[in-house]
Design goal:
- By secondary structure, the protein is α+β, with helices and mostly antiparallel strands.
- The chain has 2 domains: 61 residues, Winged helix-like DNA-binding domain superfamily/Winged helix DNA-binding domain (Arc Repressor Mutant, subunit A, Orthogonal Bundle), CATH 1.10.10; 70 residues, Gyrase A, domain 2 (2-Layer Sandwich), CATH 3.30.1360.
- It has 6 helices and 6 strands, in the order αααββαββαββα.
- The strands form 2 sheets. A 4-stranded antiparallel β-sheet has the order 3-4-6-5. Strands 1-2 form a two-stranded antiparallel sheet.
């Protein structure tokens, strides 16, 4: 029963832009599954579903596989709408974003899997990107600056 419900949840979130747990419960009920909010909450955790920002500006549930594809495809749009500046200092790239947007931009950046990047850290409005070399940091900063809307 649990695996069937999990499969149905994955099907639902792939077909519909589901924003809330209540929407999942409603769609499951329509498909003949009964579940409480607590059960759905556990299912979301078990399935490792996350909410990601859609192209329409609304957050929706996605699976880990879909999340990476969605983040890569919307990176340019997210970056250009959220980032205010990019600079580098030695092997670090510092990205300033609008308040509250650093985590989303950082996750999108991480999904691009740039070989020059060792790791990233995001705060509320600042991202630190550690690069392998000073040269790769400078090159990354210049590439990222192209996405900023002036």
């Amino acid at each position: 029963m649990k695996s069937g419900r999990h499969a149905k949840i994955l099907e639902i979130i792939s077909e519909y832009p589901v924003e809330t747990q209540d929407e999942i419960i409603t769609r499951l009920k329509e498909a003949g599954y009964r579940a409480t909010q607590a059960t759905i909450s556990r299912d979301i955790k078990d399935l490792r579903l996350v909410k990601t920002l859609g192209s329409d500006g609304k957050y929706r549930y996605t699976s880990a596989q879909n999340r990476n594809a969605d983040l890569r495809s919307s990176f340019a749009q997210l970056f250009s709408n959220s980032v205010t500046s990019v600079d580098c200092a030695q092997n670090l790239v510092v990205i300033k974003t609008l308040s509250g947007m650093a985590n989303a931009v950082c996750a999108a950046m991480d999904s691009t899997e740039n070989a020059a990047v060792i790791g990233t850290i995001a705060g509320d409005d600042t991202i630190f990107v550690a690069c392998r070399t000073t040269e790769s940091a400078a090159e990354l900063a210049e590439n990222l600056k192209q996405y900023i809307i002036r």
